Amino acid sequence: MAKRYIFAGIGVLIFVSSFAAWLTAKGSDQDNGGNVIRVVVSMVQLNVAVTDAKGNYVTTLRPSDFDISEDGIPQKLATFEEGNEGPQNLLEAAQNSGPSNDPAGEHRRSDPPHAGTQPGTLEGIASAVSGSNVFILFDTSNYMFRGRGFVFAQDSIAEFVRTLDHPYQVAFYSYSRDFYRAASLTSDRSQVLRGVRETVNGDDSALYNALLMTLKDAAQYSGRKVVVVFSNGPDNSSMVSPEDVDELAQSEGVPIYMISTREAKLDAASAAVFARMTASTGGEAYFAKSWKDQRDAFNSIREDLAHLYFMSYYPQPNPNRGWRTISVKITNPQYKKYRIRTRSGYRPIPARGSVDTADPGQ
């Protein structure tokens, strides 16, 4: 057992050290020592939930109903998708509609893609942003083994997996102090369910370490991605902070949904972190007092995934190398009371080996 912890600790240390390179982007808001830091900005993807004053989902909105800006700079949507329908390729539609007087549109058609964007045709871009990948993260720390909470949680997760629409692919991970990939991303529900049933008791909780590694896995896939966490208590052994995990989730465009029991809500600091992290990434936080509340929370997440608008854009030129704020609004004034939930922004990742020395005369 001791060796297991040693190897797990070494793995986390290696990953945290590589993650530190990403964190250095925080210091790149200003040019340093005459150097110009180049950043990679690919297609920015947004999961957007729109609800009315009663909390009902607003459907059948069109791309023209949304106003997207980044640091106040208007953006032009490239793709648009509602729920589980196929994506609309808006850039291709604009090209096929004939000549345009829009200077931005002409520039986009004639110039090569931004650095870091996916190469290929517009058809390839459309296919790259379709699909849904759900990463489930389950708390198997000693917090979970109080009463019969563990079995009820397994049942709720299993039902959630079985009832997800089949276009979704699912991965199932568990964590205590260690992090375990019980089922890699797959469309085979039986493989995921087997992983759920085979989870075993752990010790301390390293939630933020596990979230960090889950986000790293999710970043390897294109398209729609979400993380669903079932946690029964506060984190007491992570080596990374929740703020860093939150920022990475936003920068990767991955909403985090958090289901926690009243054990976590009794800890005010953890409850506040869960609420803040889910809100900033475009997800939701649920505090379940009973097994029925757990099932209701999973049902709410499933409904949310089925009603999200998924849209993307290539960022217009922006001199800001640091945190970029994203704003999504409804253009029609009569819909101004609608609530919009999405991520609040992202930080461009510096391009590796792309630091140029600025001309002193400039």
Write structural notes for this entry:
The chain is of the alpha+beta class. Helix content is 35%, strand content 27%. The protein has 11 helices and 17 strands. The strands form 4 sheets. A 6-stranded mixed beta sheet has the order 9-8-7-10-11-12, sandwiched between helices. It has a 5-stranded antiparallel beta sheet with strand order 6-5-13-2-15. β5 (77-82) and β6 (88-89) form a beta hairpin. Residues 1-7, 12-25, 28-32, 99-130 and 353-362 have low confidence and may be disordered.
Keywords:
single chain; 362 residues; alpha+beta; 6-stranded mixed sheet; 5-stranded antiparallel sheet; 11 helices; 35% helix; globular; disordered C terminus
Summarize the structure.
The protein has 362 residues and is an alpha+beta fold. It contains eleven helices and 17 strands. α5 runs parallel beside α11.
